[in-house]
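Project standup — Tuesday

K.O.: blocked on the structure for the chain from last sprint. Re-posting the sequence here as requested.
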Amino acid sequence: MNSSFKIGFISLGCPKNQIDTEIMLKILADGGYEIVSEDIAADVVIINTCAFVESAKQEAIDNILDVAWLKTNGSRRLKGIIVCGCLAQRYKEEVLSELPEIDALVGVFSIGDILAAVRHIEAKNSSKYVSLRPPEGFVLGGERILTTPEYTAYIKIAEGCGNCCSYCVIPSIRGDFNPRAEGEIIKEARELADIGVRELCVVAQDTTRYENLPRLLSELCGIEAIKWIRLLYCHPDRITGELTETIKTNDKILKYIDMPIQHINDQILSSMNRRGNSESIKSAVARLRESIPEMTIRTTVMVGFPGETKEMFGELCEFLEETKFERLGAFAYSAEEGTPAAGFAGQVEKKEKERRQKAVMALQRRIARRQNQKKIGKTIKVLCEGFDEVGEVHYGRSEADAPEIDGKVYFSAKSKIGEGSFVDVKIEKVIDYDLYASIK
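H.V.: unblocked you, prediction finished:
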């Protein structure tokens, strides 16, 4: 095939999706194709999509339509559009029938076929290429080209989810929970360390469902070049004493955990088909904070779930005010086709859901500001991510800040600090979620 054929990529959704994109990038690069950053310079644009909630679906469709317009009106070069990921897997018939500009469809278990999809378009076949393999036989992992900064990477330890929350489409898209072999994970982590990765973010749909997670984390700590190990997407029902002790006693495991609770009202949790109840959530938080006082807990809550009364919403807000999570995200319930919750009575009006979401985030902004103000005068370690030429200040993240979703630490220094370097800074000022500091 023509080695001058150029590929553009748009990756949407979560870090788990981003890893799939990175695997496809490697497959295509090994196949002799050049990856370009501008869509207008590409012969084929690949869009890796998310379809978890309505807003994610809309973002995917908007991106597809933008590239379709470019193909029709703005680029003499663009010859093909490939849609991958969750939207392709979940809405294959609708995508093919309602978006005729698409030339190929590749499902979440078919990313290994991305080379065949590109070659199909390059060969000027008139038919559309479709590969929607089942989860059975899907091989987890694979070599990849990182799209994160060279010092940070995500590592996926499992695919799919078996929790079957009543609002969630993930099991129907990505199948049941399917863990990777521990040896494969360790091998990949060593390879990432060899190319300069210093921060490893451990992800899955439900990370704490991984059997012997404490042992896996301990093994990862043995990789000398890895300095930070961050845990994301942990179910509160599986925050065991053993896991807590592993986090506490290993310096490389950051005292940070992402633990979505979704709600605190028992009736709502039961309707959501969440494991555990309000007491188990409170116990998990207490266990972490009693054992590791410096622990940063990030959580996610859902507002406007069917049947959520004003009193139930008030109970959630009261719990958040009392618990004071250091990091929190809130999203409004989205009724997704094919989920049990979409048919539940007591659906909350859109405007009310949006009002509740804004109220929670306003509450969290106040909590975060108060929590951050306690850090003034303290010295913390920061992973430098770059230098802001306009503000003439360095910026980075502390161990309390995950990539993309949390705040930044801005700091002054007498000399230039390299990206990926660890430095100790003294906190001087707080502005909402961000900290301002200087080199110690």
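K.O.: great, moving the ticket to review. Residues 55 and 161 are 21 Å apart (CA to CA). The longest strand covers residues 379-388.
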